[in-house]
Automatic annotation (TrEMBL):
Domain Flavin reductase like: 18-178
Protein name: Flavin reductase
SMART domains (UniProt xref): Flavin_Reduct
Molecular function via GO: FMN binding; oxidoreductase activity, acting on the CH-NH group of donors, NAD or NADP as acceptor
Species this chain originates from: Thalassorhabdomicrobium marinisediminis
Highest taxon in the source lineage: Bacteria
Pfam families found in the cross-reference section: Flavin_Reduct
């Protein structure tokens, strides 16, 4: 089949997020100007550069108590920092619990029973038991087409790696099985990997 997105797909559910899959999940922690913490997952997330290391995530909806966006973007606008917590399979339920449209006064760490710790390079909380955390300073927020669509870019200023995930100097994802987002209500966990050598590499 073929369809023009502007005309609709004619299927029971939108296939777009199932086509662009799997997508890593950025479990974004932020702190507002008054010191209240927030934690929310975003599947429009990825790394975008090596030197300096940079990441991005996109927020695509809004909450009534935040105007044109959601808590994460509103907090980053106010403070200029955020942390990306990597989601392991063992924390999938906690991650999902933080995805609700909770009022801005709700601390999702407490709501989901997630232990928090302080970041080292930014004034922000992080998920204490996460396999990895990227501490980030926002570099720009880009307004995208459509209502409440924003892409947030940040430079990584600090990296936490859980010791049990390091094997012979390699960050081994099979030690924690990162969770990825598929389409609809579906997720996947990385349980096996394979390697290939690019042409021209030794």
């Amino acid at each position: 089949m073929f369809y023009h997105p502007k005309d609709g797909h004619g299927l029971p559910h939108n296939p777009f997020s199932a086509i662009v899959a799997p997508r890593p999940i950025g479990w974004i922690s932020t702190r507002d100007g008054d010191g209240a913490d927030n934690l929310a997952p975003y599947s429009f997330f990825n790394a975008v550069a090596y030197e300096p290391p940079q990441v991005m995530f996109a927020s695509t909806s809004a909450k009534e108590d935040r105007g044109d966006t959601k808590d994460s973007v509103a907090n980053i606008r106010a403070t200029g920092v955020f942390a990306v917590n990597i989601v392991e399979f063992a924390m999938r339920e906690a991650m999902n619990s933080t995805s609700g449209p909770w009022p801005r006064t709700v601390d999702e760490f407490a709501h989901a029973g997630v232990e928090k710790a302080n970041c080292e390079t930014i004034d922000c909380a992080r998920v204490a038991g996460a396999p990895a955390v990227l501490e980030c300073r926002m570099t720009q927020i880009v307004t995208l087409s459509g209502p409440s669509n924003f892409a947030v870019f940040g430079e990584v200023t600090g990296v936490h790696l859980r010791d049990d995930c390091l094997v012979d100097g390699i960050f081994d994802v099979t030690r924690f099985h990162p969770v990825a987002r598929l389409g609809y209500r579906d997720y996947a966990a990385v349980r096996e990997v394979f390697s290939m050598v690019r042409p021209g590499q030794d």
